[in-house]
Amino acid sequence: MNEMREVEVAVIGAGQAGLAAAYHLRRTGFEPERDFVVLDHSPGPGGAWQFRWPSLTYGRVHGMHALPGRELTGADPARPSSEVIAEYFTDYERAFDLRVRRPVDVTAVREGANGRLLVESSDGTWATKALINATGTWDRPFWPRYPGQENFRGRQFHTARYPGPQAFAGLRVVVVGGGASGTQHLLELAPYAAATTWVTRRPPVFREGPFDEDAGRAAVALVEERVRQGLPPKSVVSVTGLPLNDAIRQGLADGVLDRLPMFDRITADGVEWKDGRRVSADVILWATGFRPAVDHLAPLRLREPGGGIRVEGTRAVVDPRVHLVGYGPSASTIGANRAGRAAVRDIRRLLSEPAGVPAAA
Fold first, then answer.
1. Is 201 exposed, middle or buried (0-12, 13-18, 19+ CB in 10 A)?
2. What sign for the dihedral angle of Cα 166, 170, 171, 173?
3. Which helix (H) or strand (E) element contains residue 118?
4. What is the DSSP letter of 102?
5. Total Cβ atoms within 10 A of residue 103
6. Which DSSP state fits 320?
7. What CA–CA distance (Å, rounded) separates 296 from 281?
8. pTM of the model
9. d(CA 91, CA 71)
10. Is the dihedral of CA 303, 308, 311, 314 positive or negative?
11. Three-class SS of residue 12?
């Protein structure tokens, strides 16, 4: 499509961070479709949650924080989180009339005329004065490469396409990754699989005791410092460790969470280490995390030599018109809410300097 339309602000992504930003734009007087537009590539509301595996029930979700202005109440903890949160996001978009456009694939953001950015998409091109990028990480699963990987005769899955534990019944499974997803997969796979093996690059760190506000702020500060330096962001859980809850304690006692160091190569029928140890496997499950989905921003040359985008608050240091929410320290449900509010506050200041902004409600 060659159609060109102008808006004050374009929001890319309608997950937690994108909807929080859209809410604050609406609340401060910006009109959807007139002053701002929200573009989302997913088929329906729900952000990345709509793609989560069926066995991840709402009661097992860690720290789902409500969107601003509307609580999530009365949800059945036994229902799949993908259903609960998709319904909640659907209701939220309707309640605040956010008019999300989907499915829309954004292919590139580049410099335009008169100080505007051009957002090129399957829905045409949008010329915008400011951009809120809320594309998250779900679309960029990280698959490590190991010698012999292409010769493995079994199946390989990533957390992004995890089909649930029943799919592994009677199979020998190697789970790679020391984060929350890796441990969750192991604990629910164990009763079905013929055998499980847990492999991580570093020994897992289990956190005992409550995780209070001071600890949370300290963890976020460590992640924030990385993006301030222009380094690729790490997840908050990478600096907090894994909570030592009852399920984890049982997994340790049962030997399910008996961790091995990272293997050195993949063979046709399993994995092996330099010391000669071998483990046979029918499946390798890569619970190895995700990377920020920001390739469409490449024409703006925002990346630093360290590989990340240097960010102050939510603002890209290289280009103050661009805000990244749900990136680095704001890549959590509560962090995304705060980042959406902060981004809108900064954008209002930016837009008020040369040309004014819509009046506050």
1. exposed
2. positive
3. strand 117-121
4. -
5. 12
6. T
7. 37
8. 0.86
9. 11
10. positive
11. strand
C-alpha to C-alpha distance for 52 and 193, rounded to whole angstroms: 21
**Contact between 219 and 321 (Cβ < 8 Å):** no
Would you call 289 exposed, middle or buried from its count of C-beta atoms within 10 A (0-12, 13-18, 19+)?
buried
Q: Identify the three-state secondary structure at position 353.
A: coil
Quote the CA–CA distance of 83 and 315 in Å, as a whole number.
33
Transcribe 191-240 into DSSP letters. Answer: TTSSEEEEEESS---EEPS---HHHHHHHHHHHHHHHHTTPPPPPTHHHH
DSSP letters for 234-247: PPTHHHH-EE--HH
**Cα–Cα nearest to 10, from 141, 84, 119:** 119
Lowest mean pLDDT among 71-80, 228-237, 246-255: 228-237
Question: What count of other Cβ atoms lies within 10 Å of the Cβ of residue 347?
Answer: 28
Task: Report which residue type is found at 124.
Answer: G
Residue from 325, 345, 350, 331 nearest 38 by CA: 325
Residue type, 235: S
Residue-wise pLDDT tens digits, 302-346: 998 888 899 888 999 999 999 999 887 666 666 778 889 999 999
Reply yes or no on whether the pLDDT at 357 is more than 70. Answer: no
In contact, 43 and 122? CB cutoff 8 Å:
no
